[in-house]
Design a protein that fits this description.
Largest sheet of chain A: 2 strands, antiparallel
Radius of gyration of chain A: 22 Å
Order of helices and strands of chain A: EEHHHHHH
Distance between the termini of chain B: 47 Å
Number of helices of chain A: 6
Number of domains of chain A: 1
Shape of chain A: globular
Shape of chain B: elongated
Number of strands of chain A: 2
Oligomer: heterodimer
Largest sheet of chain B: none
Strand order of the largest sheet of chain A: 1-2
Chain lengths: 258, 111
């Protein structure tokens, strides 16, 4: 168990309390409050708590915590405005900001040893990606009506290859939630796996005798370096997820502007 | 001439300078991307389109009983859509990070 790099992704390492019994016909087991639920709740509570605490003074001359909160707000605000325009800010800023903060909090919580990382499970990232995908379709159809389908018909294409191009555009459109979800999931999963594998080398080598004790410094250095890289990835992937959300949501507001 | 700027221009000028000084202008809201995440982005866009194309083809086979032609055609179209995706990502990346105009040019056969 101690050296199994997959063990950290089990959802019932520390908490596994059954909440309710689900019908056996569903075939999904019983509803349980486990590590995944615990750390998703912790990420939510952490962000909400931090912003409540930091913005409580709402001072004209902000304190340190308020500067952090306002910088984060301005950062995502500028990103949404750049990618989706002022209308995007009006409609989608709370959604994008929530997604970014939650993914960032979940990633950062996962950096603690023995903590569970919700974003290392594709069910979590795919849920968020599908949420964005369905929002694009619903908002796009509600706002633009049938003009939304101009998204699949690029302008300036000769009529005799148009059916072919439309089919490719449809495949390209449906591949978005997949690549959107897989990017975050694969980055976090790969990072945590590599980290655990290198960290696992340290006690293995140290147990192998005097020479191994010095040799174990090499994987230890690597683990420390990878840890720093993972902090970068934790932030960057939250940012990339939010940025892609903006780009996709922009299509809902302005279809046919490729 | 110089001091006859209309007040609106002066105001927008000031706003631009303030934005520059604060570093909240539109240009610098993006952090640098790591090479690994960029590589995963390109690969993910390519692979996702292939998987979706193949799944759509399989779905067509299932409902129209045309096995294996739907899968074959869907796979091919998926590859095409993957290349389109990669080209789009590369275009948007180049738009966001324009190449340095002062960089030394690489000589090619035409020079």
């Amino acid at each position: 168990m101690s050296n199994d790099p997959i063990h950290q992704f089990h959802t019932n390492n520390t908490v596994d309390a059954q909440v309710a019994e689900l019908p056996a016909a569903w075939g999904v087991g019983n509803l349980a409050f486990n590590d995944a639920a615990l750390f998703m709740l912790a990420g939510t509570a952490l962000t909400a708590g931090f912003f409540y605490w930091a913005m409580k003074p709402a001072a004209l001359v902000p304190g340190r915590a308020q500067v952090v909160a306002e910088t984060g707000y301005n950062f995502i605000h500028g990103m949404v405005r750049d990618a989706a325009g002022d209308e995007g800010v009006k409609r989608f800023f709370p959604f994008v900001f929530t997604l970014f903060l939650w993914i960032f909090a979940a990633n950062m919580l996962g950096m603690f040893p023995y903590f569970f990382t919700p974003t290392s499970h594709i069910i979590v990232t795919a849920t968020m990606a599908l949420m964005v995908f369905l929002t694009v379709i619903v908002v796009g159809l509600a706002k633009n009506g049938l003009k939304f389908f101009k998204l699949f018909v690029p302008s300036g294409v000769p009529i005799y290859i148009l059916p072919f191009v439309v089919f490719i555009e449809i495949i390209s459109f449906f591949s978005r939630p997949l690549s959107h979800a897989v990017r975050l999931w694969a980055n976090v999963l790969a990072g945590h796996l590599v980290l655990k594998v290198f960290a696992g080398f340290v006690p293995m080598m140290a147990a192998a005798g005097f020479v191994g004790l010095f040799g174990s410094l090499l994987p230890l250095t690597m683990t420390v370096a990878l840890y720093a890289l993972e902090f970068l990835v934790a932030f960057l992937q939250a940012y990339v997820f939010a940025l892609l959300t903006c780009i996709y949501l922009n299509d809902a507001l302005h279809p046919g502007h490729h | 001439m110089a001091d006859k700027t209309p007040p609106e221009d002066a105001l927008s000028n000031l706003r631009r300078r303030v934005a520059e000084a604060r570093g909240t202008g539109s240009a610098n809201s993006q952090p640098p991307q790591s090479a690994a995440s960029l590589a995963l982005r390109f690969g993910g866009e390519f692979g996702a389109a292939i998987i979706v194309g193949a799944l759509l083809g399989l779905g067509a086979d299932y409902f129209l009983h045309t096995s294996p032609w739907g899968l074959v055609i869907g796979f091919g179209l998926g590859f095409v859509a993957g290349v389109v995706n990669v080209v789009r990502v590369a275009q948007s990346y180049n738009r966001a990070n324009p190449p340095d105009p002062n960089a030394p040019s690489i000589p090619d056969d035409d020079d």
